[in-house]
Amino acid sequence: MALELTDSNFEDIVLKSDKPVIVDFWAVWCGPCRIIGPIVQEIGEEYSDQVVVGKLDVDNNPDVTRKYGIRNIPTLLFFKNGEVVDKQVGSVPKPVLVKKLEQYF
After folding, report:
1. Which of 5, 9, 34, 78 could form a disulfide with 54 if both were Cys (CB 3.0 to 4.6 A apart)?
2. What is the pTM of this model?
3. Contact 85, 79 (CB under 8 A)
4. What is the pLDDT of residues 55-82, one digit of tens each?
5. The CATH number of domain 3-102, selected from 3.30.460.10, 3.30.450.20, 3.40.30.10, 3.40.50.1820
6. Of the listed 2, 21, 23, 33, which one is catalytic?
7. Residue 33 catalytic?
């Protein structure tokens, strides 16, 4: 399951996590976001004991969006120990995301 991230809870959930974190930057009006959204949810469920998965609506959370220079969505940022360690822009198949994620366990 993906957590709802906001400007106010981002630091506590993402930057202070002791697990790897995937953040899906998305918007309601974004077609490709609707394609990758269910994939992100599946990963959150399948790897719930190993990773934190969150979704951040770029329209409602401009501070975090601006801080990480998100210009295209969907963008997925992979965090480990509070630092961005990988990035995926655009919709991709689930195996691509899983392969990126598994190197951070």
Report:
1. 5
2. 0.95
3. yes
4. 999 999 999 999 999 999 999 999 999 9
5. 3.40.30.10
6. 33
7. yes
